[in-house]
């Protein structure tokens, strides 16, 4: 049975996972959005909830914003509010999927007025990054077509590159652009950025500060995601993760819930490729909590990432190398499985306590009374959700 060492704990102590502001708002499927008592009404309340996750875990030092959902009059005030609560404002996500004008595309649109509008939205996002101190602009595009012949796919790639160049040119200093891919939805015939190869080709043509964002829910069933992780790290182009779980499509469920072994394998490749606790590779969640409580949902998520990181750190690299060199297939596989099957939870609980954190953050949150307080306090107003 493997045991976590002080070196492992030193590595785990550095881990930070960015939370999505939208995880704290109401969400649902196209069938129903279920409201929850205490749901934030504005970005200030979303950040307060995110800070609560960090308070119980010390794992979530920053919060990603989505524009226009998280628009405020004064971003300096929002930034101070976050900092007062012990968290930072993180990635700025653009949104070109909820405006009437973008029905047939945004950054790829053949209508120059609409494409200009979409580019300008991204330039506004960079203005916001300047005010929030955010490093990354994350772009996910809901663009594509539903029917063969509907669009000139080639011309759209060219317009996309031109649009991205204009956005990239606006970045300054340490700022970066990360381009997320997704194989389908909302378009079903073709998607303009469907896979890591397309994202890579688009960002490689921009420059060093343009990278790929890998959302774990955005692949066809059976895809070997850890291979993509390996390849992007090898190419120096893995900018960030959107972590979540999927059973069927872009389910946005809790990371590590559907397939903990897949999360373990992904993190193993992150470690192998030098991406763990590497500021160049941002760990973020991109989840929605439709039926479960949102703050505990986020606590569970960051704990799952921590737990699988701990298990991946336990892989005996020397034994693995030896088994691989000897073509000992079963021994090599056994090295991985030994680490994966190690229950690290008791050790992690003890370690948390030694750092003044709750041994069981889920229980500590439940006992904290925070949920009852926000349910009592946040009365009136409009609860945040998709589009608000
Ligand atoms: C698209 O499905 C996506 O993964 C993108 O990251 C969006 O910004 C996010 O979900 C919205 O929930
Ligand atoms: Mn995503």
Automatic annotation (TrEMBL):
InterPro entries: L-rhamnose_isomerase, Rhamnose_iso-rel, Rhamnose_isomerase, Xyl_isomerase-like_sf. The keyword Magnesium does not apply. SUPFAM superfamilies: Xylose isomerase-like (SSF51658). One of its GO terms (biological process) is rhamnose catabolic process. Keywords: Cytoplasm, Isomerase, Manganese, Metal-binding, Rhamnose metabolism. One of its GO terms (molecular function) is manganese ion binding. Its EC number is 5.3.1.-. It is an enzyme of class 5 (isomerase). It comes from the Bacteria. The keyword Metal-binding applies. This is Putative sugar isomerase R00627. It comes from uncultured Microbacterium sp. The lineage of its organism: Bacteria, Bacillati, Actinomycetota, Actinomycetes, Micrococcales.
